[in-house]
């Protein structure tokens, strides 16, 4: 099976059992990857909610199969996406996630409805 990319909102939906998490089936999660940038976002959110750092990291990485380091190619793509996505208010972390999807030619899964309006060279799946 090909890889899929999870953004921070999708990872948090799985961890917290939020609406839409059921769309990320065990079969999909078996091929899920996450950017180190987005994983840092998730861990930071969990730590800010009171998780211990090690527990937060374990929970952060539990829904994914592979942690993908943010590299020079991803940085270049993410940097170019900022201007294209500014009107929707996407963060640099969002652009990092999309950059990973573009680089891997893999679909991206998100809970962020604003991504629906994106016209990029990557397939985006909304989980809610």
State the fourth-level CATH superfamily: 5'-nuclease
Q: Write the element-wise H/E pattern from the N-terminal end onward.
A: EHHEHHEHHEE
Structure class = alpha/beta
What is the molecular shape?
A: globular
Distance between the ends: 23 Å
Low-confidence stretches: none
The count of domains is 1
Describe the structure.
- The chain is α/β, with parallel strands linked by helices and 128 residues long.
- It has a single domain, classed as 5'-nuclease (Rossmann fold).
- Helix content is 48%, strand content 12%.
- The chain contains 6 helices and 5 strands.
- The chain has a 5-stranded parallel beta sheet.
Keywords:
alpha/beta, Rossmann fold, 5 strands, globular
Nutshell version of this structure?
The protein is of the alpha/beta class and 128 residues long.
Draw up the topology in text.
Elements: E1 4-6, H1 8-16, H2 26-29, E2 32-35, H3 36-48, H4 53-61, E3 66-68, H5 72-85, H6 92-104, E4 108-110, E5 124-126
